[in-house]
Backbone:
């Protein structure tokens, strides 16, 4: 992709895609199977999130599922079955590809809001976890069920991301047991930012995403970058990185617009530059 790429006209092959008012919506759309992922949808998600680095018309992303469920994970018949017949080089290529989806989600500058209803399991739980903000419903059930199919709980970055969201002990329990985490418990543990009624879930996720898209998007991208990079920094290194990041933001037109609007007792109109 080239810089200043427009994504409103992007045609997705393996999920629904829509861009309105700077907010892109990804809808996993295989409701009869609870929206499982396939080899092809993994690859398309990876490539799409990588390309969003260059998107000039997308300032925030909402990811959701159709039909009352978020995502049931990798398709049992289209992924799990074929994996049992693969040799190690093919298996490693697959696991690296799925991890690349999470890498691309964390590296894209746009904040990602997951709207989670119903089943959110396996790789689906990782899509939600890799998002920046998670809205759920009381019907949501989150499960990192890798051990239930004989795999390690260490999948797609789960052992890195989950402890940072819910704490080490809670993450250990979930990743060892593969149990389902009910919505109220997920909210109390900090996995969900809030719970919404099913009928209003997407509206509330879009409302928040539009607020982000209407804000200082360059600064939001910097915030996301710092949140990601500072995981591996000591405090002194993090403070210096933030000093540099903030100085860059102070050189933007949005920073000046905010000052001028404040001085004039107006609401600033941010433009992301």
Residues:
């Amino acid at each position: 992709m080239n810089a200043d790429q427009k994504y409103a006209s992007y045609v997705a092959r393996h999920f629904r895609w829509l861009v309105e008012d700077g907010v892109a919506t990804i809808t996993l759309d295989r409701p009869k199977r609870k929206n499982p992922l396939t080899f092809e949808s993994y690859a398309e998600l990876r490539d799409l999130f990588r390309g969003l680095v260059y998107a000039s018309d997308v300032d925030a992303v909402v990811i959701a599922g159709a039909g009352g469920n978020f995502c049931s994970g990798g398709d049992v018949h289209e992924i799990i079955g074929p994996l049992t017949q693969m040799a190690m080089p093919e298996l490693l290529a697959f696991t690296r590809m799925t991890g690349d989806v999470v890498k691309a989600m964390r590296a894209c500058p746009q904040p990602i809001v997951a709207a989670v209803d119903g089943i959110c399991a396996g790789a689906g739980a990782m899509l939600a976890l890799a998002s920046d903000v998670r809205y759920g419903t009381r019907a949501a059930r989150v499960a990192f069920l890798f051990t239930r199919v004989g795999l390690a709980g260490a999948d797609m970055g789960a052992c890195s991301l989950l402890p940072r969201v819910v704490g080490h002990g809670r993450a250990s329990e979930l990743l060892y047991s593969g149990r389902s985490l009910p919505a109220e418990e997920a909210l109390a543990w900090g996995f969900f930012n809030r719970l919404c009624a099913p009928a209003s879930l997407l509206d509330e996720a879009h409302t928040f995403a539009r607020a982000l898209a209407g804000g200082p998007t360059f600064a939001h991208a910097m915030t996301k970058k710092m949140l990601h990079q500072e995981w591996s920094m000591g405090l002194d290194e993090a403070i210096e990185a933030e000093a540099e990041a903030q100085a860059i933001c102070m050189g933007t037109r949005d920073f000046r617009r905010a000052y001028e609007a404040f001085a004039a007792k107006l609401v600033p109109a941010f433009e992301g530059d």
